[in-house]
Amino acid sequence: MTHSQDEVLTLEELAAYLKISETTAYQLTRAGELPGRKVGREWRFLKASVVVWLAQSGGEGMNPTDGVVQRDEHGGEYKIEAGQEYIAMWLPLTREEKAAQLAKAAQEGVNVSELVADYLRSWVKH
């Protein structure tokens, strides 16, 4: 395989070239930030276009902390992935209560997220 600027990269090769996860590469591509083209069901990228994009964007969209869990000023956890911010909520729940909720979800065949939401609703009311 040639390593010229005319080289065509797959999504996997692009991610390796940019030293990012395939998920991040895909999200940047789907958001229209990375120059790529869908060929059939697969994404393809001209290495030369990626080099130009990288030089022009100054690595924009490639925050070194992308996807890394960080602490905010209140001690809470958050992460940013592909420009989307996600927060982690520390529930007022002991490990025993968590285990009980998980067991209840498994026994009743319900979504754990719904049980957590119900728990939070009842906790807020108190």
Would you write up a description of this structure?
There is one protein chain. This protein has 5 helices and 6 strands, in the order βααββαβββαα. The chain has 126 residues and is an alpha+beta fold. Among the domains are: 8-57, Orthogonal Bundle (Arc Repressor Mutant, subunit A); 95-125, no CATH class. The strands form 2 sheets. Strands 1-3-2 form a 3-stranded antiparallel β-sheet. The chain has a 3-stranded antiparallel β-sheet with strand order 4-5-6, with no helix packed on it. α1 packs across α2 (22-30). The termini are far apart. The model has no long low-confidence stretch (mean pLDDT 77).
Helix tally equals 5
Average pLDDT, all residues: 77
Q: Choose one word for the global shape.
A: elongated
**Can you tell me the CATH class of the domain at 8-57?**
Mainly Alpha
- Assembly status: single chain
**Sheet with the most strands, sense and barrel status:** 3 strands, antiparallel
Q: Strand share of the residues?
A: 15-25%
* Side-by-side strand order of the widest sheet: 1-3-2
Label the structural class. alpha+beta
